[in-house]
Amino acid sequence: MFCGRTCCLFCLFMSSWAFLMLNLLGMFFYVQSLMLLESLPLPHQFNSMQSFKEQADEAYQDVSTRCFVTAIVYLGFVFIAIVVIRRDNKRRKRLYKALRARR
């Protein structure tokens, strides 16, 4: 196996946490939370208030989409970690049964 049981459990925990946090962050960007305005990739100078609103709306949508896509990637890592843990459990059961059969 590529990594041990502890490593797989750690990856499962971290990927689950990242999935949760990125979904929350994506929702906050989607509803255009003002607390996240400073995190947007916007220039510091604007010609008018209308251009600021348009660029801010576009940036909020872009960042929320990025958060949701990244959350889906981390969900894939969650499934990979679960599959590896289950394979390790099956392998351990087979080895345990083989050792008991030898006695």
From TrEMBL:
Q: Which GO terms describe its cellular component?
A: membrane
User: What's one GO MF term for it?
Assistant: RNA endonuclease activity
Which residue windows are transmembrane per the record? 7-31, 63-85
**Which gene does this sequence derive from?**
Dere\GG22165
Descriptive protein name: Uncharacterized protein
Organism domain of life = Eukaryota
Q: Where in the cell is it found?
A: Membrane
Specify the signal sequence span: none
Q: How is the protein disposed in the membrane? A: Multi-pass membrane protein
The UniProt keywords, alphabetically, are: Membrane, Transmembrane, Transmembrane helix
The Swiss-Prot or TrEMBL record describes its family as follows: Belongs to the RNase K family.
